[in-house]
Structure formats: structure tokens, C-alpha cells
Amino acid sequence: MRINSRRRSAAVAGGLGLVLALTACMPGDDEGTEGGGGGEAAGSEECEPFEQYGDLGGTTVSVYTSIVEPESVDQEESYDLFEQCTGATIQYEGSREFEAQLLVRIQAGNAPDIAYIPQPGLLQTIVRDNPDAMVPAPDETEANVDEFFAPSWKEYGTVDGEFYAAPLGANMKSFVWYSPQMFADAGYEIPETWDDMIALSDQIVADGGKPWCAGIESGDATGWPATDFVEDVVLRSAGEDVYDQWVSHEIPFNDPQIVEALDEVAGILKNPDYVNAGFGDVTTIATTPWTDGGFPILEGECWMHRAANFYQNQWPEGTEVAEDGDVFAFYLPSMTEGTQPVLGGGEFVAAFDDRPEVQAFQTYLSSDHWANEKAKMTEAGGWVSANSGLDVENLATDFDKLSSTILASPDAVIRFDASDLMPGAVGAGTFWTEMVNFFALDKSSQEVADAIEASWPAS
Predict the structure, then answer these.
(1) TM spans, by residue (predicted)?
(2) Do domains 10-171+344-408 and 175-343+413-454 have the same CATH topology?
(3) Which overall architecture, per CATH, does domain 10-171+344-408 show?
(4) pTM, entire model
(5) Nearest residue to 7 via CA among 88, 76, 60
(6) pLDDT digits (tens, 9 = 90+) for 39-67
(7) Which CATH superfamily is domain 175-343+413-454 in?
(8) Which of 351, 295, 361 has its CA nearest to residue 326?
(9) In angstroms, rounded to a whole number, what is the distance separating the alpha carbons of residues 67 and 399?
(10) How many Cβ atoms are within 10 Å of 160's Cβ, its own excluded?
(11) Which of 168, 213, 293, 348 could in theory staple to 302 by disulfide, Cβ–Cβ 3.0 to 4.6 A?
């Protein structure tokens, strides 16, 4: 049985019941499932796309991921048809300590069948430090990636020329959340440039408010939301070429251009006049859960909160996300006219076993069929994919469609989350912890950059 799984609506269940009633009159298992799935709904039109995977009845695939409730509910529901049509069982486990515990499990010889790895840098570390633990992706998965994803996405899942992991979901991180009603009542306009955003922040202070709220606490992954802010600023202040050099360590982490970006972030998030609205002083950023970081907007205490498109799933139940709703988001402005930098991210499906059912599930997750099924299951919104086979009309909200459109725009300069591309010891290590020290201990930009640079692996 899967953990924390929520089943489909009664209408869909009723439809499947009709299918089962009809298939009850069909030939028995020995005659009716040859070449098709082994699940109880096998033989239905709905199951035709799953015939390629064969009969997987009686098998189980374990999945380990950082995707936890509430996002995990929709994620698990997107597996329903795979289970029903193939007969396989997907055993799902989400953990807030995923990054640390995955390495522990691999080293203990207890790796899951499938893991959704959100850091290509961590993917590289696992492959290079644990030879033969991760298995290359099957040809069918690679064919899907070649068909439905841009080449750069395939590169993120490739290590030393070997393709291991297909993209799963994608996200756009360059957003600032706000209250449309509060802006309208105060006569504030959406800033179109970085300077406009800073001027707006100063105006809010002059009017007696605190413009920004933030939180970076996230269990073993505490610090990651702050790394996103730094990455967005590096991409805007130094440009994509420097960003690429920074990620690959062609320039050191403490290069003056990176220190300057940290200073720019400090000008917002370490400015006592700007933060931490609704929570306290600057130091509270380190201890405020990232899931709650934007909530003061709903109380009228905060005006802006920088967070990715998936943050819409963190708002309390009943919150309307719309241009005329309780909250919405605007694009984090560029610092240079005529450019549209976008910080993105996503997860990659890696396998630690090559059993047929594991390969089948890995291939399903790389398909356009799964991308559209996931979009349909995510009724509350907050999920997009870079899969070109995704019909944007299946996305739940206008905000999701906006995110997907920006991610796919030929005019956007998109770069993957830098910390996710860096070696695991840095990207999922010192970059996180030093950003906590940035706020909790008031370490300077130079001190933070120097400490992270000192931790960069020698090879």
C-alpha cells in the first residue's frame, strides 16, 4: 500500500467500476492480459498506453523523494493508472530529510528503487562516489527525453557521458508574491525593473510598513530558499556567462561579482527596515519555516515575498491565487533592460535497480502521458513541467500556465538552480549552512563567500 495516498473522485471511481464490470465478461487472465498490463483495469481503452510495460502484477517499486504533503498527494495520484493498468504497486515515501538520508541509505546498501533528485550536483556526487549504485536509464526513457525535452535538461541528468535520470517536474523560481488588494488600496504598481522594486520597498517603509518577509528553515535542507535569492541576483547582476562560470567553478565562489550579489541580497533581506515583516528581526529569517515565509501577506503585515511558482501550494486552504485574488505573483524584475533572466529547477528520476517494473515506471515518468496525468491530478495548481508533450490547458491555474509559458519562452534566459548543479558538499551543504549563518550570525557577504569557497572539493 502507498503512504498517505488519496484516491480519485467518486466520478472517476465510478467510471473505473463500469470498466471493471465490462471486463468481467472478457476472457480470463491467461487469455486476456497477454501483451497488456496486469492490473485489474487492464483491457480498457484507458489502459492502452500502458500495454508497452507488460504485466507487472505482484511487483512493487519503492520511490523516495523530498516531495511531501501537500504536494505528495497529487504526485501519488498521478500513479493510479500505472498501478491499475500494470498491476504494479508504487510504494511512496516523502521526507524532509531526503538529501541527507538518501546518501545514508545508499551507503548502507538500502537504496530505494527510484529517487527524485532535485540537485544535478548531488546526482553527480552519487554516481562518482558510489560506483554502480545508480543504474543508467533504459533506452525507452532516453527516447522519451530526446523527444519531449530540450537537450539541456538531458545534460542535467547525464554524468560523465552516461544518461541516468530523466526530468520530472520543473519550476520557475523568479517570482515575488504579493496581495493585489493591498497594492491597489495603497496605489502601488507592480515594479517593472529592479530599481522600481527597491524604490517601492523604500516607499512602503516611508508609509510605515515593512516590505519583505522571508523564511529559510527546512529541516536538514535549511538555507535553500536563501540560495535561490542569491542565484536570482547573480543571474541578474553578473549575467548568464558569469553564472555558468560560477556554477562550474571556473571562477571561485568568492569572486567579487558573487560577493557583490550577496551584498545586493543583504540590501533587502538584512535590511532591518525591510524585514522580517510579521515575524521579527533579521535573525528570524533563519528560523522561520520556508512554508510559512509569505503568510504575513495574508494578515496585511508584509508586502512582498520572493518564492517559486510551487509556493502557491503552501498558502492556507481557501486562499485564492489570482490577479484579483488574495495573493498573486509578479516576475522578479531584471536589472538590465531588455533581458529576462529566469531561475529554474526541477527533479530528476534516478534508479538504483534495473528490474523490469523499475524501468517501466522510470519510463512512464518521462512520458508525455504522465506529464498530462500529473497536470490533471494537480487540481489546486502549483506544478508545471518542461515536457513539450504537456498540454498547458491541462494545468489547473492561470498562474501555472503563466509559469509554463515563461519557462518555454525563447526570449527567456533560463538557468538551472546553481546550488543544485554544484557538488553536493557545496550546493546541498555549505551554501545552505552559510546562508543560515548570513542571517543568524550576521556573517558578512565576504565571510560567507570565503567559507563556501574553502569547502569546494579539490577534484
Answers:
(1) none
(2) yes
(3) 3-Layer(aba) Sandwich (3.40)
(4) 0.71
(5) 76
(6) 555 567 899 999 999 999 999 999 999 99
(7) Periplasmic binding protein-like II (3.40.190.10)
(8) 295
(9) 21
(10) 8
(11) 213
